[in-house]
Amino acid sequence: MLERPLSAIAHKTWREADAPHDFISLFDIVSFVRQYLFFILSFSVAGILCSAFYIGTSDPIYAARTQILIEPKIPRNLQQQPAEINLSLDTAQVESQLAVLRSEKIAMMVIDDLGLMNDPRFRDLNGPGIGDRFRRAWTNTVQVSGIGDHAGYVGLANFVDRMLPWVDRTQANNPKPDTERERKAVEIFDDGLDVQRVGVSYAIDITFQSLDPKLSARIANATADAFVREQVQTTTAAATEGIAWLERRMREVGDQMNKATRVAQEFRAKHDYAIDPNETPIDRQDLPPDKEHPGQQTTLEQLEVAAGTYRKMYESLLAAYTNSVDQQPYIIADARVITSATSPETASRPRKKLVLAFGALAGLMAGIGFAVARRSLDRNVRRPHQIRRELGLACIGELPQVSFRRGGFGRLDEVLRDPQSSFSTSMKGLKATISLAGASRPMRCIGITSVSPGDGKSTVVSNLAALYGASGITTLVINADHRSALAAELLSSPNFDVFDQDSVDPKEFVKKIQFVEGMSFYGLTNVDRISNNATLDKNMEKILREVGPYKIVIVELPPFTSGADALAVCPLLDGVIVVAQWGETSLGQLADLTQTLRNTNSSVLGVLMTRVRSVSTSGYRKRAAQAPR
Protein backbone atom coordinates (compact mmCIF):
# COMPACT_ATOMS: atom_id res chain seq x y z
CA MET A 1 0.00 0.00 0.00
CA LEU A 2 2.92 2.30 0.79
CA GLU A 3 4.96 1.01 -2.11
CA ARG A 4 7.38 3.50 -3.65
CA PRO A 5 6.46 4.84 -7.11
CA LEU A 6 9.66 3.57 -8.72
CA SER A 7 9.04 0.09 -7.39
CA ALA A 8 5.49 0.17 -8.71
CA ILE A 9 6.76 1.09 -12.13
CA ALA A 10 9.36 -1.66 -12.03
CA HIS A 11 6.64 -4.24 -11.34
CA LYS A 12 4.64 -3.21 -14.40
CA THR A 13 4.91 -4.98 -17.70
CA TRP A 14 6.58 -3.23 -20.65
CA ARG A 15 3.17 -2.47 -22.17
CA GLU A 16 1.84 -0.86 -18.97
CA ALA A 17 5.03 1.04 -18.30
CA ASP A 18 5.13 2.54 -21.77
CA ALA A 19 1.62 3.99 -21.76
CA PRO A 20 1.88 6.71 -19.08
CA HIS A 21 5.43 7.71 -20.07
CA ASP A 22 4.83 8.56 -23.72
CA PHE A 23 6.84 11.79 -23.94
CA ILE A 24 8.89 13.48 -26.64
CA SER A 25 12.59 12.88 -26.17
CA LEU A 26 15.52 14.74 -27.66
CA PHE A 27 16.10 11.88 -30.04
CA ASP A 28 12.52 12.18 -31.30
CA ILE A 29 13.13 15.85 -32.07
CA VAL A 30 16.39 15.09 -33.87
CA SER A 31 14.69 12.32 -35.83
CA PHE A 32 11.84 14.64 -36.74
CA VAL A 33 14.25 17.32 -37.97
CA ARG A 34 16.26 14.83 -40.00
CA GLN A 35 13.13 13.40 -41.57
CA TYR A 36 11.63 16.73 -42.62
CA LEU A 37 14.82 18.73 -43.03
CA PHE A 38 14.27 19.10 -46.77
CA PHE A 39 10.78 20.55 -46.33
CA ILE A 40 11.89 22.90 -43.57
CA LEU A 41 14.85 24.16 -45.60
CA SER A 42 12.66 24.51 -48.69
CA PHE A 43 10.22 26.75 -46.83
CA SER A 44 13.10 28.77 -45.40
CA VAL A 45 14.58 29.30 -48.86
CA ALA A 46 11.14 30.26 -50.15
CA GLY A 47 10.82 32.82 -47.34
CA ILE A 48 14.22 34.29 -48.19
CA LEU A 49 13.28 34.49 -51.89
CA CYS A 50 10.02 36.27 -51.04
CA SER A 51 11.94 38.72 -48.85
CA ALA A 52 14.45 39.33 -51.63
CA PHE A 53 11.57 39.90 -54.06
CA TYR A 54 10.04 42.42 -51.64
CA ILE A 55 13.35 44.24 -51.20
CA GLY A 56 14.13 44.29 -54.91
CA THR A 57 10.73 45.70 -55.89
CA SER A 58 10.30 48.23 -53.04
CA ASP A 59 11.17 51.91 -53.24
CA PRO A 60 13.86 53.10 -50.81
CA ILE A 61 12.45 55.43 -48.16
CA TYR A 62 14.62 58.09 -46.51
CA ALA A 63 13.98 59.59 -43.06
CA ALA A 64 15.18 63.05 -41.99
CA ARG A 65 15.00 64.22 -38.38
CA THR A 66 14.87 67.65 -36.80
CA GLN A 67 14.50 68.53 -33.14
CA ILE A 68 12.76 71.40 -31.36
CA LEU A 69 12.68 72.45 -27.71
CA ILE A 70 9.53 73.63 -25.92
CA GLU A 71 9.96 76.48 -23.44
CA PRO A 72 7.68 75.74 -20.46
CA LYS A 73 5.52 78.52 -19.03
CA ILE A 74 4.48 78.00 -15.42
CA PRO A 75 2.49 80.66 -13.54
CA ARG A 76 4.33 82.42 -10.73
CA ASN A 77 1.93 81.21 -8.09
CA LEU A 78 2.67 77.59 -9.11
CA GLN A 79 6.44 77.81 -9.23
CA GLN A 80 6.74 77.14 -5.48
CA GLN A 81 4.24 74.27 -5.55
CA PRO A 82 5.30 70.60 -5.24
CA ALA A 83 6.99 68.94 -8.19
CA GLU A 84 3.96 66.76 -8.93
CA ILE A 85 1.91 69.77 -9.98
CA ASN A 86 4.67 71.12 -12.19
CA LEU A 87 5.17 67.73 -13.83
CA SER A 88 1.47 67.37 -14.63
CA LEU A 89 1.39 70.83 -16.15
CA ASP A 90 4.55 70.13 -18.19
CA THR A 91 3.16 66.84 -19.53
CA ALA A 92 -0.08 68.46 -20.61
CA GLN A 93 1.76 71.31 -22.27
CA VAL A 94 4.08 69.02 -24.25
CA GLU A 95 1.24 66.76 -25.31
CA SER A 96 -0.66 69.82 -26.52
CA GLN A 97 2.32 70.88 -28.62
CA LEU A 98 2.53 67.36 -30.08
CA ALA A 99 -1.14 67.58 -31.06
CA VAL A 100 -0.48 70.90 -32.77
CA LEU A 101 2.43 69.41 -34.72
CA ARG A 102 0.19 66.58 -35.96
CA SER A 103 -2.66 68.91 -36.87
CA GLU A 104 -3.93 69.54 -40.38
CA LYS A 105 -3.13 73.24 -40.04
CA ILE A 106 0.62 72.56 -39.87
CA ALA A 107 0.30 70.09 -42.74
CA MET A 108 -1.40 72.64 -44.97
CA MET A 109 1.17 75.29 -44.08
CA VAL A 110 4.03 73.00 -45.12
CA ILE A 111 2.25 71.81 -48.28
CA ASP A 112 1.57 75.39 -49.37
CA ASP A 113 5.07 76.64 -48.52
CA LEU A 114 6.87 73.88 -50.47
CA GLY A 115 4.26 73.38 -53.21
CA LEU A 116 4.06 69.65 -52.49
CA MET A 117 0.79 69.19 -54.36
CA ASN A 118 2.65 69.69 -57.64
CA ASP A 119 5.86 67.91 -56.64
CA PRO A 120 6.13 64.46 -58.34
CA ARG A 121 8.55 63.28 -55.63
CA PHE A 122 5.88 63.71 -52.96
CA ARG A 123 4.21 60.30 -53.31
CA ASP A 124 2.50 57.67 -51.22
CA LEU A 125 4.75 55.49 -49.01
CA ASN A 126 2.57 52.37 -49.12
CA GLY A 127 4.64 50.96 -51.96
CA PRO A 128 3.65 49.51 -55.31
CA GLY A 129 0.96 46.90 -55.78
CA ILE A 130 1.64 43.27 -56.55
CA GLY A 131 1.24 43.89 -60.28
CA ASP A 132 3.75 46.73 -60.26
CA ARG A 133 6.15 44.61 -58.22
CA PHE A 134 6.10 41.84 -60.81
CA ARG A 135 6.56 44.40 -63.55
CA ARG A 136 9.58 45.85 -61.77
CA ALA A 137 11.03 42.40 -61.21
CA TRP A 138 10.61 41.58 -64.89
CA THR A 139 12.17 44.91 -65.90
CA ASN A 140 15.17 44.31 -63.65
CA THR A 141 15.57 40.80 -65.07
CA VAL A 142 15.48 42.15 -68.62
CA GLN A 143 18.08 44.79 -67.80
CA VAL A 144 20.40 42.28 -66.18
CA SER A 145 20.03 39.72 -68.98
CA GLY A 146 20.58 42.34 -71.68
CA ILE A 147 17.63 41.39 -73.91
CA GLY A 148 16.03 44.80 -73.62
CA ASP A 149 17.54 45.97 -76.92
CA HIS A 150 16.27 43.01 -78.89
CA ALA A 151 13.75 44.05 -81.55
CA GLY A 152 11.34 41.26 -80.77
CA TYR A 153 11.26 42.06 -77.09
CA VAL A 154 10.77 45.78 -77.75
CA GLY A 155 7.76 45.06 -79.96
CA LEU A 156 6.27 42.69 -77.42
CA ALA A 157 6.83 45.17 -74.58
CA ASN A 158 5.12 47.97 -76.54
CA PHE A 159 2.17 45.73 -77.30
CA VAL A 160 1.77 44.72 -73.67
CA ASP A 161 2.14 48.33 -72.56
CA ARG A 162 -0.65 49.41 -74.89
CA MET A 163 -2.98 46.57 -73.92
CA LEU A 164 -2.65 46.57 -70.13
CA PRO A 165 -4.33 49.41 -68.19
CA TRP A 166 -1.43 50.61 -66.06
CA VAL A 167 -2.25 52.68 -63.00
CA ASP A 168 -0.10 55.66 -64.03
CA ARG A 169 -1.83 55.94 -67.37
CA THR A 170 -5.28 55.73 -65.78
CA GLN A 171 -4.47 58.54 -63.35
CA ALA A 172 -3.10 60.72 -66.14
CA ASN A 173 -6.27 60.30 -68.20
CA ASN A 174 -8.57 61.02 -65.22
CA PRO A 175 -7.19 64.01 -63.26
CA LYS A 176 -8.51 64.51 -59.75
CA PRO A 177 -10.13 67.74 -58.47
CA ASP A 178 -8.14 70.14 -56.29
CA THR A 179 -10.01 69.26 -53.11
CA GLU A 180 -9.26 65.58 -53.54
CA ARG A 181 -5.65 66.29 -54.39
CA GLU A 182 -5.38 68.45 -51.29
CA ARG A 183 -6.88 65.73 -49.13
CA LYS A 184 -4.52 63.15 -50.64
CA ALA A 185 -1.53 65.41 -49.99
CA VAL A 186 -2.54 65.78 -46.33
CA GLU A 187 -2.86 61.99 -45.99
CA ILE A 188 0.59 61.46 -47.52
CA PHE A 189 2.00 64.09 -45.16
CA ASP A 190 0.42 62.42 -42.14
CA ASP A 191 1.78 59.01 -43.18
CA GLY A 192 5.32 60.34 -43.51
CA LEU A 193 5.34 62.48 -40.36
CA ASP A 194 6.36 61.05 -37.01
CA VAL A 195 6.41 63.24 -33.89
CA GLN A 196 7.80 61.83 -30.65
CA ARG A 197 8.76 63.29 -27.30
CA VAL A 198 12.36 62.64 -26.25
CA GLY A 199 12.00 60.84 -22.94
CA VAL A 200 10.51 63.12 -20.28
CA SER A 201 12.26 66.22 -21.58
CA TYR A 202 10.81 69.20 -23.44
CA ALA A 203 12.57 68.17 -26.65
CA ILE A 204 10.48 66.85 -29.56
CA ASP A 205 11.79 64.81 -32.52
CA ILE A 206 10.17 65.57 -35.88
CA THR A 207 10.90 62.81 -38.42
CA PHE A 208 9.65 62.77 -41.97
CA GLN A 209 9.95 59.90 -44.43
CA SER A 210 9.99 60.41 -48.17
CA LEU A 211 11.13 58.71 -51.35
CA ASP A 212 13.63 61.53 -51.94
CA PRO A 213 16.32 62.23 -49.31
CA LYS A 214 16.50 65.98 -49.98
CA LEU A 215 12.73 66.34 -49.93
CA SER A 216 12.49 64.55 -46.57
CA ALA A 217 14.99 67.01 -45.03
CA ARG A 218 13.17 70.01 -46.53
CA ILE A 219 9.79 68.87 -45.23
CA ALA A 220 11.17 68.12 -41.75
CA ASN A 221 12.72 71.58 -41.48
CA ALA A 222 9.63 73.20 -42.95
CA THR A 223 7.46 71.44 -40.36
CA ALA A 224 9.56 72.81 -37.51
CA ASP A 225 9.52 76.31 -39.02
CA ALA A 226 5.76 76.13 -39.59
CA PHE A 227 5.22 75.12 -35.97
CA VAL A 228 7.30 78.05 -34.67
CA ARG A 229 5.61 80.44 -37.09
CA GLU A 230 2.18 79.17 -36.09
CA GLN A 231 2.96 79.86 -32.44
CA VAL A 232 4.09 83.39 -33.25
CA GLN A 233 0.99 84.01 -35.35
CA THR A 234 -1.29 82.64 -32.67
CA THR A 235 0.35 84.72 -29.94
CA THR A 236 0.27 87.85 -32.14
CA ALA A 237 -3.38 87.36 -32.99
CA ALA A 238 -4.24 86.92 -29.30
CA ALA A 239 -2.30 90.06 -28.35
CA THR A 240 -3.93 92.10 -31.15
CA GLU A 241 -7.36 90.98 -30.08
CA GLY A 242 -6.57 91.90 -26.48
CA ILE A 243 -5.42 95.38 -27.45
CA ALA A 244 -8.54 95.95 -29.52
CA TRP A 245 -10.69 94.91 -26.58
CA LEU A 246 -8.80 97.26 -24.25
CA GLU A 247 -9.32 100.13 -26.67
CA ARG A 248 -13.05 99.54 -26.80
CA ARG A 249 -13.29 99.22 -23.04
CA MET A 250 -11.22 102.34 -22.49
CA ARG A 251 -13.56 104.37 -24.67
CA GLU A 252 -16.59 103.13 -22.77
CA VAL A 253 -15.08 103.78 -19.33
CA GLY A 254 -13.73 107.16 -20.45
CA ASP A 255 -17.17 108.30 -21.52
CA GLN A 256 -18.66 107.18 -18.22
CA MET A 257 -15.85 108.93 -16.29
CA ASN A 258 -16.40 112.21 -18.17
CA LYS A 259 -20.12 112.14 -17.49
CA ALA A 260 -19.61 111.45 -13.78
CA THR A 261 -17.04 114.25 -13.48
CA ARG A 262 -19.27 116.74 -15.28
CA VAL A 263 -22.25 116.01 -13.04
CA ALA A 264 -20.11 116.40 -9.91
CA GLN A 265 -18.71 119.71 -11.12
CA GLU A 266 -22.17 121.07 -11.99
CA PHE A 267 -23.48 120.06 -8.57
CA ARG A 268 -20.60 121.81 -6.81
CA ALA A 269 -21.04 124.97 -8.94
CA LYS A 270 -24.65 125.44 -7.84
CA HIS A 271 -23.69 125.41 -4.15
CA ASP A 272 -26.71 123.30 -3.55
CA TYR A 273 -26.94 119.90 -1.87
CA ALA A 274 -29.76 118.77 -4.06
CA ILE A 275 -30.12 118.05 -7.72
CA ASP A 276 -33.11 118.77 -9.87
CA PRO A 277 -35.46 115.80 -9.52
CA ASN A 278 -35.87 115.73 -13.30
CA GLU A 279 -32.13 115.08 -13.77
CA THR A 280 -30.84 111.55 -13.15
CA PRO A 281 -27.35 111.21 -11.62
CA ILE A 282 -24.68 109.40 -13.57
CA ASP A 283 -24.31 106.60 -11.07
CA ARG A 284 -28.03 105.76 -11.26
CA GLN A 285 -28.55 106.01 -14.99
CA ASP A 286 -28.73 102.29 -15.44
CA LEU A 287 -30.57 101.53 -12.22
CA PRO A 288 -34.36 101.28 -11.79
CA PRO A 289 -36.05 103.99 -9.69
CA ASP A 290 -36.06 103.54 -5.93
CA LYS A 291 -39.68 102.68 -5.08
CA GLU A 292 -39.04 102.47 -1.31
CA HIS A 293 -37.53 105.98 -1.10
CA PRO A 294 -38.98 107.98 -3.99
CA GLY A 295 -38.10 111.32 -2.47
CA GLN A 296 -34.45 110.63 -1.57
CA GLN A 297 -31.87 112.99 -3.22
CA THR A 298 -28.27 112.34 -4.39
CA THR A 299 -25.46 114.05 -2.44
CA LEU A 300 -22.15 115.55 -3.60
CA GLU A 301 -20.17 112.84 -1.86
CA GLN A 302 -21.89 110.13 -3.93
CA LEU A 303 -21.16 111.95 -7.16
CA GLU A 304 -17.49 112.41 -6.27
CA VAL A 305 -17.11 108.72 -5.30
CA ALA A 306 -18.65 107.60 -8.63
CA ALA A 307 -16.38 109.90 -10.60
CA GLY A 308 -13.31 108.63 -8.69
CA THR A 309 -14.27 105.03 -9.31
CA TYR A 310 -14.53 105.53 -13.04
CA ARG A 311 -11.21 107.38 -12.97
CA LYS A 312 -9.46 104.42 -11.32
CA MET A 313 -11.00 101.97 -13.79
CA TYR A 314 -9.82 104.08 -16.69
CA GLU A 315 -6.30 104.36 -15.27
CA SER A 316 -6.08 100.57 -14.87
CA LEU A 317 -7.23 99.96 -18.43
CA LEU A 318 -4.81 102.60 -19.69
CA ALA A 319 -1.90 100.94 -17.87
CA ALA A 320 -2.81 97.50 -19.30
CA TYR A 321 -3.15 98.96 -22.77
CA THR A 322 0.23 100.69 -22.53
CA ASN A 323 1.89 97.44 -21.32
CA SER A 324 0.34 95.40 -24.18
CA VAL A 325 1.42 97.92 -26.81
CA ASP A 326 4.96 97.97 -25.41
CA GLN A 327 5.28 94.12 -25.37
CA GLN A 328 3.75 93.45 -28.79
CA PRO A 329 6.96 93.97 -30.83
CA TYR A 330 8.78 91.46 -28.54
CA ILE A 331 6.42 88.48 -29.02
CA ILE A 332 8.42 85.26 -29.50
CA ALA A 333 7.44 81.60 -29.81
CA ASP A 334 7.51 79.12 -26.96
CA ALA A 335 9.59 76.70 -29.07
CA ARG A 336 12.90 76.87 -30.91
CA VAL A 337 14.77 74.58 -33.29
CA ILE A 338 17.84 73.01 -31.71
CA THR A 339 18.74 70.53 -34.49
CA SER A 340 18.08 71.02 -38.19
CA ALA A 341 17.44 68.09 -40.52
CA THR A 342 20.02 67.14 -43.12
CA SER A 343 19.65 64.98 -46.21
CA PRO A 344 20.06 61.30 -45.20
CA GLU A 345 22.67 59.28 -47.07
CA THR A 346 21.16 55.81 -46.53
CA ALA A 347 17.59 54.60 -46.77
CA SER A 348 15.78 53.79 -43.57
CA ARG A 349 13.38 51.37 -45.27
CA PRO A 350 13.27 48.63 -46.27
CA ARG A 351 15.66 47.20 -43.72
CA LYS A 352 17.25 44.54 -45.85
CA LYS A 353 18.88 42.42 -43.16
CA LEU A 354 15.82 42.54 -40.94
CA VAL A 355 13.47 41.67 -43.82
CA LEU A 356 15.68 38.77 -44.91
CA ALA A 357 15.93 37.49 -41.34
CA PHE A 358 12.17 37.78 -40.93
CA GLY A 359 11.58 35.95 -44.23
CA ALA A 360 13.92 33.14 -43.21
CA LEU A 361 12.28 32.88 -39.78
CA ALA A 362 8.77 32.96 -41.24
CA GLY A 363 9.72 30.29 -43.77
CA LEU A 364 11.29 28.21 -41.01
CA MET A 365 8.16 28.44 -38.87
CA ALA A 366 5.96 27.62 -41.88
CA GLY A 367 8.16 24.64 -42.71
CA ILE A 368 8.03 23.36 -39.14
CA GLY A 369 4.25 23.82 -39.10
CA PHE A 370 3.93 21.94 -42.38
CA ALA A 371 6.16 19.16 -41.07
CA VAL A 372 4.19 18.90 -37.82
CA ALA A 373 0.91 18.77 -39.73
CA ARG A 374 2.26 16.13 -42.08
CA ARG A 375 3.66 14.14 -39.18
CA SER A 376 0.34 14.26 -37.31
CA LEU A 377 -1.48 13.00 -40.41
CA ASP A 378 1.14 10.34 -41.12
CA ARG A 379 -0.02 6.86 -40.05
CA ASN A 380 3.05 4.98 -41.24
CA VAL A 381 5.54 3.13 -39.07
CA ARG A 382 8.44 5.32 -37.99
CA ARG A 383 9.25 4.69 -34.33
CA PRO A 384 9.46 1.52 -32.17
CA HIS A 385 7.13 2.99 -29.54
CA GLN A 386 4.43 3.24 -32.23
CA ILE A 387 4.59 -0.53 -32.63
CA ARG A 388 4.43 -1.09 -28.89
CA ARG A 389 1.59 1.38 -28.34
CA GLU A 390 -0.55 0.59 -31.39
CA LEU A 391 0.06 -3.15 -31.84
CA GLY A 392 1.25 -4.38 -28.45
CA LEU A 393 4.28 -6.00 -30.11
CA ALA A 394 7.97 -5.51 -29.63
CA CYS A 395 10.21 -3.97 -32.27
CA ILE A 396 12.93 -6.60 -32.48
CA GLY A 397 15.21 -4.70 -34.83
CA GLU A 398 15.84 -1.64 -36.99
CA LEU A 399 17.75 -2.14 -40.23
CA PRO A 400 19.27 1.13 -41.47
CA GLN A 401 19.16 1.93 -45.13
CA VAL A 402 22.25 1.14 -47.19
CA SER A 403 23.43 3.94 -49.44
CA PHE A 404 23.52 3.37 -53.20
CA ARG A 405 22.04 -0.12 -52.91
CA ARG A 406 18.64 -1.26 -54.24
CA GLY A 407 16.71 1.74 -53.04
CA GLY A 408 18.31 1.60 -49.60
CA PHE A 409 18.08 -2.18 -49.03
CA GLY A 410 21.19 -4.24 -48.46
CA ARG A 411 22.43 -6.97 -50.76
CA LEU A 412 21.40 -10.57 -50.26
CA ASP A 413 24.80 -11.28 -48.66
CA GLU A 414 25.39 -7.84 -47.16
CA VAL A 415 26.40 -9.28 -43.76
CA LEU A 416 29.21 -11.26 -45.45
CA ARG A 417 30.45 -8.44 -47.70
CA ASP A 418 30.53 -5.76 -44.99
CA PRO A 419 30.43 -7.39 -41.53
CA GLN A 420 31.17 -4.12 -39.67
CA SER A 421 28.41 -2.03 -41.20
CA SER A 422 25.36 -0.78 -39.27
CA PHE A 423 23.20 -3.06 -41.36
CA SER A 424 25.23 -6.11 -40.37
CA THR A 425 25.22 -5.05 -36.72
CA SER A 426 21.42 -4.76 -36.76
CA MET A 427 21.10 -8.21 -38.40
CA LYS A 428 23.32 -9.70 -35.71
CA GLY A 429 21.07 -8.10 -33.12
CA LEU A 430 18.05 -9.75 -34.77
CA LYS A 431 19.82 -13.12 -34.65
CA ALA A 432 20.57 -12.60 -30.97
CA THR A 433 16.94 -11.70 -30.25
CA ILE A 434 15.78 -14.94 -31.91
CA SER A 435 18.31 -16.89 -29.85
CA LEU A 436 17.02 -15.30 -26.64
CA ALA A 437 13.46 -16.15 -27.62
CA GLY A 438 14.58 -19.79 -28.14
CA ALA A 439 15.88 -20.04 -24.60
CA SER A 440 12.40 -20.64 -23.20
CA ARG A 441 11.02 -22.74 -26.06
CA PRO A 442 12.51 -24.30 -29.21
CA MET A 443 12.92 -21.83 -32.06
CA ARG A 444 13.79 -23.88 -35.14
CA CYS A 445 11.27 -22.96 -37.85
CA ILE A 446 10.99 -19.20 -38.33
CA GLY A 447 8.64 -17.54 -40.78
CA ILE A 448 9.20 -14.06 -42.19
CA THR A 449 6.40 -12.10 -43.84
CA SER A 450 5.55 -8.47 -44.61
CA VAL A 451 2.58 -6.27 -45.41
CA SER A 452 3.39 -5.61 -49.05
CA PRO A 453 6.06 -6.48 -51.62
CA GLY A 454 9.16 -4.33 -51.55
CA ASP A 455 9.43 -4.09 -47.77
CA GLY A 456 12.81 -5.87 -47.74
CA LYS A 457 11.57 -9.30 -46.70
CA SER A 458 13.86 -11.22 -49.07
CA THR A 459 16.90 -9.22 -47.93
CA VAL A 460 16.14 -10.08 -44.31
CA VAL A 461 15.66 -13.80 -45.10
CA SER A 462 18.88 -14.09 -47.10
CA ASN A 463 21.11 -12.18 -44.66
CA LEU A 464 19.67 -13.93 -41.61
CA ALA A 465 20.30 -17.32 -43.24
CA ALA A 466 23.83 -16.21 -44.15
CA LEU A 467 24.52 -15.30 -40.51
CA TYR A 468 23.35 -18.70 -39.30
CA GLY A 469 25.32 -20.48 -42.01
CA ALA A 470 28.47 -18.47 -41.28
CA SER A 471 28.24 -19.43 -37.62
CA GLY A 472 28.32 -23.15 -38.53
CA ILE A 473 24.59 -23.81 -38.12
CA THR A 474 23.04 -25.81 -40.97
CA THR A 475 20.34 -23.59 -42.37
CA LEU A 476 17.55 -24.17 -44.87
CA VAL A 477 15.64 -21.38 -46.63
CA ILE A 478 12.17 -22.34 -47.90
CA ASN A 479 10.68 -19.86 -50.30
CA ALA A 480 6.86 -19.81 -50.40
CA ASP A 481 6.66 -16.52 -52.31
CA HIS A 482 7.08 -16.99 -56.05
CA ARG A 483 7.49 -13.19 -56.44
CA SER A 484 10.32 -13.04 -53.95
CA ALA A 485 13.44 -11.15 -54.99
CA LEU A 486 15.53 -13.91 -53.46
CA ALA A 487 13.91 -16.63 -55.58
CA ALA A 488 14.11 -14.53 -58.74
CA GLU A 489 17.80 -13.78 -58.27
CA LEU A 490 18.78 -17.33 -57.35
CA LEU A 491 16.80 -19.03 -60.07
CA SER A 492 18.21 -16.73 -62.76
CA SER A 493 21.82 -17.03 -61.60
CA PRO A 494 24.12 -19.73 -63.06
CA ASN A 495 25.91 -20.01 -59.71
CA PHE A 496 22.99 -21.80 -58.08
CA ASP A 497 21.57 -25.24 -58.81
CA VAL A 498 18.04 -25.37 -57.46
CA PHE A 499 15.68 -28.29 -58.15
CA ASP A 500 11.97 -28.03 -58.67
CA GLN A 501 10.20 -30.04 -56.00
CA ASP A 502 7.95 -31.61 -58.63
CA SER A 503 10.82 -33.57 -60.24
CA VAL A 504 12.72 -35.09 -57.32
CA ASP A 505 12.16 -36.81 -54.04
CA PRO A 506 11.59 -34.49 -51.08
CA LYS A 507 14.80 -35.72 -49.51
CA GLU A 508 16.73 -34.29 -52.48
CA PHE A 509 14.90 -30.99 -52.62
CA VAL A 510 17.73 -28.85 -51.29
CA LYS A 511 20.97 -27.76 -52.83
CA LYS A 512 23.66 -25.69 -51.27
CA ILE A 513 23.64 -21.96 -51.84
CA GLN A 514 27.10 -20.56 -52.45
CA PHE A 515 26.88 -17.92 -49.71
CA VAL A 516 28.42 -20.22 -47.15
CA GLU A 517 28.73 -23.92 -46.54
CA GLY A 518 25.82 -25.47 -44.67
CA MET A 519 23.17 -23.14 -46.12
CA SER A 520 20.58 -24.53 -48.54
CA PHE A 521 17.67 -23.21 -50.54
CA TYR A 522 14.34 -24.79 -51.49
CA GLY A 523 11.87 -23.09 -53.78
CA LEU A 524 8.18 -23.89 -53.25
CA THR A 525 7.28 -22.82 -56.78
CA ASN A 526 3.80 -24.37 -56.98
CA VAL A 527 2.34 -22.35 -54.14
CA ASP A 528 -0.06 -20.61 -56.56
CA ARG A 529 -1.43 -23.96 -57.76
CA ILE A 530 -2.45 -25.06 -54.24
CA SER A 531 -6.22 -24.74 -54.14
CA ASN A 532 -6.96 -24.61 -50.42
CA ASN A 533 -5.32 -24.00 -47.07
CA ALA A 534 -5.51 -27.64 -46.02
CA THR A 535 -3.38 -28.77 -48.98
CA LEU A 536 -0.89 -26.00 -48.28
CA ASP A 537 -0.63 -26.98 -44.63
CA LYS A 538 -0.08 -30.65 -45.55
CA ASN A 539 2.65 -29.80 -48.06
CA MET A 540 4.43 -27.49 -45.64
CA GLU A 541 4.11 -30.00 -42.82
CA LYS A 542 5.54 -32.71 -45.07
CA ILE A 543 8.44 -30.52 -46.10
CA LEU A 544 9.25 -29.58 -42.51
CA ARG A 545 9.36 -33.26 -41.52
CA GLU A 546 11.90 -34.04 -44.27
CA VAL A 547 14.41 -31.36 -43.21
CA GLY A 548 15.68 -33.10 -40.11
CA PRO A 549 19.42 -32.41 -40.67
CA TYR A 550 18.90 -28.65 -40.57
CA LYS A 551 18.93 -26.89 -37.22
CA ILE A 552 17.36 -23.63 -38.50
CA VAL A 553 14.62 -23.43 -41.11
CA ILE A 554 13.65 -19.97 -42.41
CA VAL A 555 10.42 -19.77 -44.39
CA GLU A 556 9.84 -16.74 -46.61
CA LEU A 557 6.07 -16.22 -46.58
CA PRO A 558 4.08 -14.23 -49.13
CA PRO A 559 3.15 -10.62 -48.25
CA PHE A 560 -0.20 -9.87 -46.63
CA THR A 561 -1.42 -7.98 -49.71
CA SER A 562 -1.17 -11.20 -51.76
CA GLY A 563 -3.85 -12.80 -49.61
CA ALA A 564 -4.13 -14.39 -46.20
CA ASP A 565 -4.30 -17.97 -47.54
CA ALA A 566 -0.54 -18.52 -47.46
CA LEU A 567 -0.42 -17.35 -43.84
CA ALA A 568 -2.35 -20.44 -42.80
CA VAL A 569 0.96 -22.30 -42.43
CA CYS A 570 2.15 -19.91 -39.71
CA PRO A 571 0.83 -22.08 -36.82
CA LEU A 572 3.22 -24.81 -38.01
CA LEU A 573 6.18 -22.50 -37.38
CA ASP A 574 7.82 -21.78 -34.06
CA GLY A 575 7.71 -18.04 -34.61
CA VAL A 576 6.85 -15.41 -37.19
CA ILE A 577 8.69 -12.12 -37.83
CA VAL A 578 6.78 -9.29 -39.50
CA VAL A 579 8.85 -6.98 -41.72
CA ALA A 580 7.70 -3.34 -42.06
CA GLN A 581 9.33 -0.66 -44.18
CA TRP A 582 10.10 2.55 -42.33
CA GLY A 583 7.87 5.43 -43.41
CA GLU A 584 5.98 3.32 -45.99
CA THR A 585 4.13 0.57 -44.16
CA SER A 586 0.79 1.71 -42.79
CA LEU A 587 0.02 1.07 -39.15
CA GLY A 588 -3.51 0.04 -40.11
CA GLN A 589 -2.32 -2.66 -42.53
CA LEU A 590 0.31 -3.80 -40.06
CA ALA A 591 -2.38 -4.11 -37.38
CA ASP A 592 -4.53 -6.18 -39.74
CA LEU A 593 -1.62 -8.52 -40.47
CA THR A 594 -0.74 -9.03 -36.81
CA GLN A 595 -4.40 -9.57 -35.91
CA THR A 596 -4.67 -12.21 -38.65
CA LEU A 597 -1.61 -14.00 -37.27
CA ARG A 598 -3.08 -13.94 -33.78
CA ASN A 599 -6.37 -15.31 -35.03
CA THR A 600 -4.50 -18.30 -36.48
CA ASN A 601 -2.79 -18.90 -33.10
CA SER A 602 0.59 -18.04 -34.62
CA SER A 603 3.49 -16.99 -32.41
CA VAL A 604 4.56 -13.49 -33.47
CA LEU A 605 8.11 -12.71 -32.32
CA GLY A 606 7.86 -9.02 -33.20
CA VAL A 607 8.20 -6.45 -35.95
CA LEU A 608 11.40 -5.70 -37.83
CA MET A 609 11.70 -2.28 -39.50
CA THR A 610 13.76 -1.86 -42.67
CA ARG A 611 15.26 1.19 -44.39
CA VAL A 612 15.28 3.12 -41.12
CA ARG A 613 16.75 6.59 -41.64
CA SER A 614 17.40 7.25 -37.95
CA VAL A 615 17.94 4.21 -35.75
CA SER A 616 16.73 4.78 -32.20
CA THR A 617 19.60 2.74 -30.71
CA SER A 618 22.39 4.57 -32.57
CA GLY A 619 23.15 6.73 -29.52
CA TYR A 620 23.64 3.70 -27.30
CA ARG A 621 25.91 2.09 -29.88
CA LYS A 622 28.12 5.17 -30.04
CA ARG A 623 28.44 5.25 -26.28
CA ALA A 624 29.27 1.54 -26.22
CA ALA A 625 31.96 2.08 -28.87
CA GLN A 626 33.50 4.94 -26.84
CA ALA A 627 33.38 3.06 -23.53
CA PRO A 628 36.76 1.95 -22.13
CA ARG A 629 37.59 -1.71 -22.48
UniProtKB/TrEMBL annotation:
The keyword rRNA-binding does not apply. Residues 23-114 form the Polysaccharide chain length determinant N-terminal domain. CDD domains: BY-kinase. InterPro entries: Bact_polysacc_biosynth/exp, CobQ/CobB/MinD/ParA_Nub-bd_dom, GNVR, LPS_length_determ_N, P-loop_NTPase, Wzc-like_C. Pfam families: CbiA, GNVR, Wzz. Residues 271-296 are annotated as: Disordered. GO terms for molecular function: protein tyrosine kinase activity. Residues 281-294 have a biased composition (Basic and acidic residues). GO terms for cellular component: plasma membrane. Residues 448-615 form the CobQ/CobB/MinD/ParA nucleotide binding domain. The keyword Cell membrane applies. Keywords: ATP-binding, Cell membrane, Membrane, Nucleotide-binding, Transmembrane, Transmembrane helix. This is Chromosome partitioning ATPase, Mrp family, contains Fe-S cluster. It comes from Mesorhizobium qingshengii. The lineage of its organism: Bacteria, Pseudomonadati, Pseudomonadota, Alphaproteobacteria, Hyphomicrobiales.
